[in-house]
Design a protein that fits this description.
7-stranded parallel beta sheet, 617 residues, 6-stranded mixed beta sheet, Alpha-Beta Plaits, 26% helix, 2 domains, Rossmann fold, single chain, alpha/beta
């Protein structure tokens, strides 16, 4: 199966866009030809096959089939919709020499690469110049696939992919539209972690559009010395054949905050949030993944990292955080650390797939944190597969050395942790935004919660409302706002700026006075037939929490405070390597997922959906 980035080949001209026009005597006859019998053949084909002659690629010199200019179908229409976008095309001559100077003069483009094997060029130009290029006779113009994928497909052998249904959307048309996934404006994902290894071209290509090193700790290697961030980025947005991530067309912005031991200063993580806020529009960052947690148990009303991620949330960036890997075997641990303890963000727990793509038997691994935050909020909101995950890793990274027995193939390792559940949800959030660009973080969170798949065998609350359902979440037409009760505590930022701020004093006074303060949220929101319909939110939230158990400054034991200002990655270091059958799908798994009523494509997409193929490693 071709992965995104493959060169287009085997182009058929039976449905080509053929230009028309007048002869240009200034060009040599050897280059442009005279038509003759070829034109008669073309006209016969037009009459028999109904090929349109009057296309939008009108030429100015055409007299015969060798002088007709072919433009891949849809390119001119897409160019007119996005006239200011830089596009990348491959241009060859139908006969004779390629008129490179004329092409550059007419398009104001630049040659990215000379393709001597086919006597062509890879050309970069503004989309609004494509029609000028199409008027030059005798050319064949096709998209340079890595920059504008129009027919590429993605594949994965991993079990979490059919479990979420995301594979059914990678290459599918858009519902009620003539667009495909490649036509959607998928946002970039910011990965706040240990860096991303850009040398892994099969996974990321040129989609790591920015790397920022914010680490102030001394033991940090260039790139990704730990390996954690590369793995996280691969799960969120990888493209490698057999290992595609949740949103394989998303660009990646890497914010390196961890050293080679997997440790970060919390102040560096806050600096990363500031960088994202300052640059989100430049790089189209709409999702930020934090697979890490602070070392100090805290209240979200006082924690500076919580305040930082809230600023991202209020600015329109959907923040996804790992729940943490400090869970207990037989009791809830609570979710005590920033940023996963913040009620605004999407906190993700890890599910153990139990070797099959159905969530019916799934449970939370003992190390996946769940329960109340110090402020009484039930976390996580939902879960994704997080045990025995496989992703890319730099060969020389410390994580690869420490977990050498977990290497499953060159450059790929098996790891467990809520760190690797979170990027699945981050990638799905990017897919939701691509189809619903006007949605804000609250709607995205609500849509993910509303469509979560129930996990009846899991301890209540350990996987939140259930496991993420990419297919249904992406195709929602509307979503509730689960943060509705908190909105009345938003007001102007006392320190200035255009973003709102959370009024912690007002919220604390309300919460202390009435433990059911948030009932207005769940009572007023219509959740339809979702998992929430079977859950009394009041039974798992404030009604069971004593405010005395919640953290306030008076309750803090200073002996419990770590003065190192540290945050840590959320990899389940103690989890075993597992069995590859827990990670990779076989045909029976795919057949089960295909028959799962929760993972069915709408009828208008079924006929157009390519059949899935997979193979074991």
């Amino acid at each position: 199966m071709l992965r995104n980035g493959g060169r287009p080949g085997g182009q058929s001209r039976s449905s080509a866009l053929w230009g028309t026009g007048n002869n240009d005597d200034s060009r040599s006859n050897a280059l442009w030809g005279k038509g003759g019998r070829g034109l008669v053949t073309l006209m016969a084909a037009v009459l028999v096959l109904g090929i349109p002659l009057a296309a939008s690629a009108g030429g100015d010199d055409n007299t015969g089939p060798e002088t007709q200019t072919y433009v891949s179908p849809g390119m001119l229409a897409n160019a007119s919709k996005h006239p200011d976008k830089t596009i990348h095309v491959i241009v060859t001559a139908n006969a004779g020499d390629l008129p490179k100077s004329r092409i550059l003069d007419k398009t104001l483009g630049s040659v990215d690469r000379r393709l001597g094997l086919i006597d062509g060029i890879a050309l970069d130009l503004r989309a609004n110049r494509l029609d000028q290029l199409a008027k030059i006779p005798g050319l064949t113009i096709t998209p340079d696939a890595p920059a504008h994928p129009t027919g590429s497909t993605f594949s994965s052998k991993q079990l979490w992919v059919p479990n979420t249904g995301i594979d059914k959307l990678w290459n599918a048309p858009v519902a009620n539209s003539t667009k495909t996934q490649s036509d959607l404006a998928v946002p970039a994902i910011a990965v706040v972690d240990s860096g991303v290894d850009t040398s892994k071209a099969a996974d990321f290509g040129a989609r790591v559009v920015q790397q920022v090193n914010l680490t102030t700790l001394p033991n940090n290697s260039p790139g990704d010395g730990r390996g954690h961030g590369t793995f996280v980025a691969g799960i969120a947005a990888g493209q490698a054949t057999g290992y595609a991530g949740a949103s394989p067309r998303s660009n990646i912005v890497s914010l390196d905050v961890m050293d080679d031991t997997g440790t970060a200063r919390t102040s560096d993580v806050i600096a990363a949030a500031q960088w994202i806020l300052d640059n989100k529009d430049k790089y189209n960052i709409k999702v930020a993944n934090f697979s890490l947690h602070a070392s100090n148990s805290s209240s979200f009303t006082h924690d500076p990292l919580d305040k930082a991620v809230e600023k991202l949330w209020f600015s329109g960036v959907t923040v996804v955080a790992a729940a943490g890997n400090y869970g207990y075997a037989n009791a809830p641990s609570g979710v005590k650390y920033a940023p996963g303890n913040d009620p605004f963000v999407i906190t993700v727990g890890a599910a153990d797939m139990d070797g099959n793509p159905s969530p019916n038997n799934d449970t939370a691994p003992s190390w996946s944190a769940y329960g109340y935050t110090n402020d009484g909020f039930a976390k996580p909101e939902l879960a994704a597969d997080g045990r025995y995950m496989v992703g890319p890793i730099p060969a020389g990274s410390t994580l690869a050395s420490q977990k050498a027995s977990n290497i499953v193939s060159p450059g790929y390792i098996m790891l467990s942790g809520t760190s690797f559940a979170a990027p699945i949800v981050a990638g799905i959030a990017a897919q939701i935004i691509a189809r619903n660009p006007t949605w804000g973080p609250d709607q995205i969170k609500g849509g993910l919660m509303e469509t979560a798949r129930p996990t009846p065998n899991a301890t209540p609350g350990s996987l939140g409302l259930g496991e993420v359902n990419a297919l249904k979440a992406v195709l929602l037409s509307g979503a509730p706002n689960p943060n509705k009760a908190l909105e009345k505590f938003l007001g102007p930022d006392p320190s200035g700026g255009n973003l709102p701020a959370f009024n912690a004093v007002s919220w604390s006074d309300t919460a202390k006075a009435n433990v059911s303060w948030d009932a207005v949220s769940w009572g007023d929101v219509s959740w339809g037939d979702s998992a929430l319909a079977a859950v009394s939110w009041a039974d798992i939230s404030w009604s069971d929490v004593s405010w005395a158990d919640s953290l306030s400054s008076a309750d803090v034991s200073w002996a419990d405070i770590s003065w190192s200002d540290s945050s840590y990655e959320d990899a389940a270091e103690g989890d075993g390597a597992g069995n590859t059958t827990d990670s990779f799908a076989d045909p029976a798994d795919l057949a089960a997922a295909a028959a799962d009523p929760d993972l069915q494509l709408p009828s208008d997409l079924v006929a157009l959906q390519p059949s899935a193929t997979t193979s074991l490693p």
